[in-house]
Design a protein that fits this description.
Length: 181
């Protein structure tokens, strides 16, 4: 029994495998499903293809790993997800926004995903997330790294399709600010 508990500890190989499986499951059950809120499009219309084309990579670490990944960006992927370890959640949103100002010059963008964060949500109804069943009890934070130009081009396309029509004013401001970087 003690060995099983040790395997579940944050940072263990077993925990990391479960995190990757959970992220893939979250993508299938939440991000890839059509949503009334997003005018019939999934919350992330590009997720399914990115996973199918092996263009998503999941890694683990903190600020150093995020910065190292940005310095050594690999264009063979579309999205790098850094699952944070040993990083105070209260710092992540602000740190990512500060770094985004600099990273825009390198055509990169960070997006923090911190449970219970006050970051600007799109306003998607909770009812659309009811089918989501996590594999792990303990939540974790993530930092998504992508090419800024790719995110903005996708955002422009989605806007023309009515994707943002039900989003919060705060979220629309976030999208507008990202486009002007």
């Amino acid at each position: 029994m003690g060995n099983r508990r040790q395997e579940e500890e944050v940072g263990s190989a077993h925990w990391r495998l479960k995190v990757v499986a959970e992220i893939q499951r979250w993508s299938r059950q939440v991000l890839e499903r059509p949503s009334d809120h997003f005018d019939g499009l999934p919350p992330c219309p590009f997720a399914r293809k990115a996973w199918a084309d092996n263009k998503v990579k999941v890694d683990f670490g903190g600020k150093k790993e995020v910065l190292k990944s940005c310095l050594n960006w690999d264009d063979s992927i579309d999205l790098l997800i850094i699952v944070t370890e040993d990083w105070e959640w209260g710092e992540i949103d602000d740190w990512c926004e500060e770094e985004n100002e600099q990273l825009a010059e390198d055509d990169l963008a960070l997006m923090a995903f911190v449970p219970d964060s006050e970051a600007v949500p799109p306003g998607q109804p909770v009812e659309e997330l009811e089918d989501w069943e996590p594999l792990l009890e303990e939540p974790y934070a993530m930092v998504f790294i992508q090419r800024l130009s790719t995110v903005n081009a996708a955002s422009d396309k989605l806007e023309r399709q009515g994707y943002y029509k039900n989003c919060t004013t705060e979220f629309l401001e976030y999208v507008k600010d990202r486009r002007t970087r």
